[in-house]
Write a structure and sequence with these properties.
Blueprint (H helix, E strand, L loop, with lengths): L15 H20 L4 E2 H10 L22 H4 L1 H17 L4 E5 L5 H13 L6 E4 L3 H14 L7 E4 L6 E8 L8 E5 L5 E8 L4 E7 L3 H7 L6 E5 L1 H12 L1 E13 L1 H4 L10 E4 L2 E3 L10 E3 L2 E2 H10 L3 E7 H7 L2 H8 L5 H15 L8 E8 L20
Parallel strand pairs: 2-3, 2-5, 3-4, 5-10, 10-14
Antiparallel strand pairs: 1-7, 6-7, 6-9, 7-8, 10-16, 11-12, 11-13, 15-16
């Protein structure tokens, strides 16, 4: 089924091949909605739009990351990002010397290259660097990136189809939680709660509300003020629980954009935080070119903290990305990185680090939270030794 696509101002027009791919996913989504009686939850829509085999945004072959894609993540901005994360990883592996590093959603593989390279320099290589990424296309990109940059370490890297049943070591998840399917809840002006799902209209997909019946979601949404729409991610809490279930000893590091609950449900966010990313443009229509547009929502870090606590994990800390990177020594790394560089190379490296640290860029919007189990706990992990914001959770 092909819907009319209204071209939005300033958005690049997709190629005929890309448009055909999107229309194939539209057909798949229409079948899902029809089979469900004309309505599906937004979480089901988002899951199919992002992860439907061969059709979803992360399952297709289009470039997602970097200048040629739809957005740029921190490892694409500067190699010092991954080198900084490696300081936290190295501290955990010092205590768990036979542990693995487990990276969720490894993207282009640049973060793995950066972390592995720095761990090799520090003499703290893990027994295995395991990547859990369900995209076959991204797996190949990751393998190629590691083989090119660190061929001598490729045999330490393995790709998983599921979380290990038991594991020790360090988990890294950079910009994973924001892509976990979310459910939408709307409280109308009278105070009644509705789940906002998706149906098919004459011109395309449309939002459609139904009375909220899920008891767990009702409890979570009870805090919403009147005339307010927001996202809830019970699947993110389930992901934390699943990762914790197999962890015998070690730590988890989650980095993403978001807020604690008090800020997340601020009156200024009465329309929620759901957005799309298409060719480096922010798109507020979640139905724009399914399969070609990334869908994300900001993370409620209070909910993530509660999920970790419920799973029996200890909170290591919660800080802004800027403070985390500073505590991991990114400025010292920058000095070493540019020691013999030209003035132009130094300026480029400095600008990249500024983007990672600046409150006006990624430094404040992005947060870092870490959990642990079975660590001695005598010293704080690198990244969390100053300016901890755990009290805000």
């Amino acid at each position: 089924m092909a819907f009319r696509m209204q071209q939005q101002a300033n958005l690049p027009v997709p190629s005929p091949e890309a448009l055909a791919h999107s229309q194939a996913l539209v057909g798949h989504l229409c079948q899902l909605i029809d089979a469900a009686g004309g309505w599906i939850s937004f979480a089901d829509y988002m899951r199919a739009a992002l992860y439907a085999p061969g059709l979803g945004y992360y399952s297709g072959g289009a470039t997602k990351f970097g200048a040629a894609g739809d957005f740029i993540t921190a490892p694409e901005i500067s190699p010092l990002f991954g080198q900084s994360l490696a300081q936290t990883v190295a501290a955990v592996l010092t205590e768990v010397p036979d542990g693995i590093v487990l990276e969720l959603g490894a993207g282009t593989g640049k973060l793995a290259v950066q972390v592995l390279g720095e761990l090799a320099r520090l003499g703290r290589l893990p027994a295995q660097y395991c990547i859990l990424d369900l995209s076959a296309e991204l797996r190949e990109r990751q393998r190629a990136a590691i083989a090119t940059a660190l061929p001598q370490l490729l045999d330490r890297v393995s790709w998983l189809d599921a979380l290990p049943e038991r594991w020790e070591g360090m988990l890294i998840a950079n910009e994973v939680l924001d892509a976990v399917p979310c459910q939408l809840v709307h409280r109308d002006a009278a105070g009644t709660l509705f789940e906002r799902g998706v149906s098919v209209g004459a011109q395309g997909f449309v939002f459609s509300d139904r009375p909220l019946a899920d008891p767990a979601l009702l409890a979570s949404a009870s805090q919403l003020p009147a005339d307010y729409t927001s996202e809830f991610q019970p699947e993110a809490a389930a992901l934390i629980a699943s990762c914790a279930a197999g962890l015998d000893r070690g730590a988890m590091l989650w980095l993403d954009y978001g807020f604690p609950a008090r800020e997340f449900y601020h009156p200024q966010r009465s329309e929620g935080t759901l957005m799309g990313h298409y060719r480096h443009h922010s798109v507020h229509d979640p139905f724009w070119l399914p399969g070609l547009t990334d869908l994300t929502c900001h993370v409620d870090f209070s909910a993530i903290y509660q999920a970790g606590a419920t799973a029996g994990l200890a909170l290591e800390g919660y800080v802004s990305q800027g403070q985390y990177l500073l505590d991991c020594g990114i400025l010292e790394g920058l000095e070493q990185h540019t020691l013999n560089s030209s003035p132009q190379e130094h300026a480029l490296a400095l600008n990249a680090v500024q983007k990672l640290l600046s409150p006006a860029e990624m430094g404040e919007l992005f947060k870092v939270i870490a959990f642990s189990r079975g660590l001695a706990g005598q010293t704080l992990l690198p990244g969390f030794r100053s300016a901890d914001r755990s009290g805000a959770l």
